[in-house]
Amino acid sequence: MTLRKIKTNDTPAFNASLLICILQMANIGTVCIIGAYLFKIDTLTDRITAVYIGLGLYIFLFVINYFLLYAQRELILERYQDLLPKRKTKGQIYFWLYVLLSLVIFFVAGINLVTPK
């Protein structure tokens, strides 16, 4: 709903779905980094392979999110249209905390747990 307030944003639902996919990728990456560290799994691959794996996973997530969220955007918007202002503010605070923590934890785990050989 916040993206709808930006006047130059023609497709707020599509932009939100892209952001959700990026955050999901960061969360999956964090779990993979922590899992590889805990179980001593060697995950070194070349850069090209990592790019293809990342793009494949992103496309997979986007297709899933398209059918579960984007295709039903009008129903979702209608459901949350009449929230109380206090509840909207709380939801936005939780959302931005999720964004911030997802990215910070991903980068901190990547910097501290991935050791080049």
Q: What is the gyration radius calculated from CA atoms?
A: 17 Å
Structural class category = mainly alpha
Provide mean pLDDT, rounded: 89
Helix content: over 70%
> Low-confidence stretches at least 5 residues in length (pLDDT < 50)?
none
N-C termini distance: 45 Å
Tally of extended strands?
0
The portion of residues forming beta strands comes to: under 5%
Number of domains: 1
Helical stretch count?
4
* Major beta sheet summary: none
Shape: elongated
Q: Give helix and strand order, one letter per element, not per position.
A: HHHH
Task: Give me the secondary-structure topology.
Layout (H helix, E strand, L loop, with lengths): L11 H27 L8 H22 L4 H8 L4 H29 L4
Helix pairs in contact: 1-2, 1-4
Explain how this protein is built:
The protein is mainly alpha-helical and 117 residues long. It has one domain (2-113). It contains four helices and no strands. Helix 1 (12-38) packs across helix 2 and helix 1 (12-38) packs parallel to helix 4. The longest helix has 29 residues, at 85-113. It starts with 11 loop residues before the first helix and ends with a helix.
Summary, kept brief:
This protein has helices spanning 12-38, 47-68, 73-80, 85-113. The protein has 117 residues and is an all-alpha fold.
